[in-house]
């Protein structure tokens, strides 16, 4: 019994001289390895608001909130609840642009209010000019335009959003007339694009 006590005594004396073996966290930050998986952080410049990160998150820690603002616009807010996050990195791996969300080295995440434990990014949504429903983030459509290059001319929605960005398009409001082939040249959701294309190809459904 006396040897363990002597060993403990030796360790006590050694630590008096050398200081404690453990890190002084939380008084001082703990040194972090380069590969640490800390809080996921959005980059508004790299994010296009596609929502793929929410789809792949295994614990459903990311909410997609589409809502209408007071000035009548539609926005998409991605809310990442990092109190539910398991730091797996799937959102970063599955990010469409590979630039929208990254795991940071931030790991001191404790707090008293879980409602405050969110990381967010907000994007404007494009609204269908026929059904008036929001259907995709504008930055997402612009990103598709950049990716497709000349191929973007196959889809009027994609190149019209780019023309709006360049200030080359003025949106003419529709009246209540039935859809016709002139509606091809409008920003449309996939359902309305299909209706207009079918009408143009085969005429009105009898
Ligand atoms: S790191 Fe994993 S758990 Fe956390 S938000 Fe991303 S996908 Fe979800
Ligand atoms: S661009 Fe990346 S971070 Fe932004 S919504 Fe899409 S998957 Fe999520």
Please describe what this structure looks like.
It is a single chain. This protein is α+β, with helices and mostly antiparallel strands. The chain has 2 domains: 34-126, Alpha-Beta Plaits (2-Layer Sandwich), CATH 3.30.70.3270; 128-206, no CATH class. Helices cover 30% and strands 17% of the residues. It contains 6 helices and 6 strands; from the N terminus they run αβαββαβββααα. It has helices at residues 2-18, 52-56, 90-94, 138-148, 156-165, 190-202, and strands at residues 40-42, 62-68, 74-81, 101-103, 118-127, 134-137. The strands form 2 sheets. It has a 4-stranded antiparallel β-sheet. Strands 1-4 form a two-stranded antiparallel ribbon. The site of one iron/sulfur cluster has 14 residues, from helix 2.
What topology does this entry show?
Blueprint: H1 2-18, E1 40-42, H2 52-56, E2 62-68, E3 74-81, H3 90-94, E4 101-103, E5 118-127, E6 134-137, H4 138-148, H5 156-165, H6 190-202
Antiparallel strand pairs: 1-4, 2-3, 3-5, 5-6
Helix pairs in contact: 4-5
The structure holds iron/sulfur cluster (2 copies).
One iron/sulfur cluster binds at residues 40, 57, 59, 61-62, 80, 85-91.
